[in-house]
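Sat 14:20. Reprocessing the chain from the morning session after the first attempt stalled halfway. Input below, unchanged.
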Amino acid sequence: MTLGSLLPASFRRRQRARSAPPGPLRTYYDMPVPPRARDWMQVEFLALDLETTGSDPDVNEIVSAGWVQIRGGAIDLGTATRRMVRPSVPMPEESAVIHAITDDEAAQGEALLAVLVDILGALGGRVLVAHYARAELGFLDAACRRCLGGGLLVPVVDTLQLARRRYSRTGRTPARGEFRLDALRTQYNLPRHQMHDALSDAIAAAELFLAQAAELSAAGRLSLRTLLAHV
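Finished this time. Tokens:
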């Protein structure tokens, strides 16, 4: 944990806004984020998933992105978006096996900047939802630094963290693999989905989040503060 991470998120966001160069990143920071005390049903979220060439955002690249909006406790499938990103180097074989994106498909993708600008536009005023959000945050932050001259700070709900909190309340030790997205969906009786496709995984995370939020809100009012991840 760094000294900066101990500062309130609102203060860190104001710092980023002041230091961001004019352009899409500054426009993103100019959009107010929902108050943490607000009821979750009155907050808009954006479920997002990225497919990448590896796990290191300083070395590897984004090859596809998928996202969908959540509002009023429901997924707005009319906002579902899948975008391909053209990498700067050939696709590693091990990555192509996982997400089934070939070199030919990747070559038809868009420039990272164009996709990144649209992601920031969709994120403006919303809370990010992702499963193991640290991965998405790492790649988005690295991409913003490379393409837009500044880092990204965004409020986030991590469905993996929500699952871990749930288990900590039960005192039960989870089995190996029990926190995987597909395993958690099974626990909530959600249907199987196509894995390692950015849009499919984004929708899968959105559905899991809604199931988790419904469970948490059964005991009474659920605020955004209760859902936010510590990253």
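The chain has ten helices and five strands.
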